[in-house]
Design a protein that fits this description.
127 residues, mainly alpha, two-stranded antiparallel sheet, binds zinc ion
Amino acid sequence: MNVKIDKDLAEEMKSKLENEKKRLEQELSKFTRKNPHVEDDFDASFPEYGDKDDENAQEVAQYTANKPLEITLEKELRDVNQSLDRIEKGTYGICKYCDQAISKKRLEARPTSSSCVSCKKTLTQEA
Ligand SMILES: [Zn+2]
């Protein structure tokens, strides 16, 4: 590998990512249970308001409302964990498509970036 990794930047991003991880797990724990069998999978817990019909309807509504948030938070958490993984492996800050360094500015704006701006652009245009 001929791309030099900015160790200081990786350290800085590591603490940012670890804080982010705590925040996301906290958010998720408010309305989900961690799936003990699958890593990083959370299940929205079914709220218990009561046994009356309108209470049951409220439970379903709440559960349905939580689902998209659960999916969003899970995805963010996965990105954060993958970034932490890349820091451990020493590949953090390198574009996964072209093996070039991702600009510091981009990483600071979005610490979970795994591709450089030009690859991202190409991908978005193709999509
Ligand atoms: Zn790239």
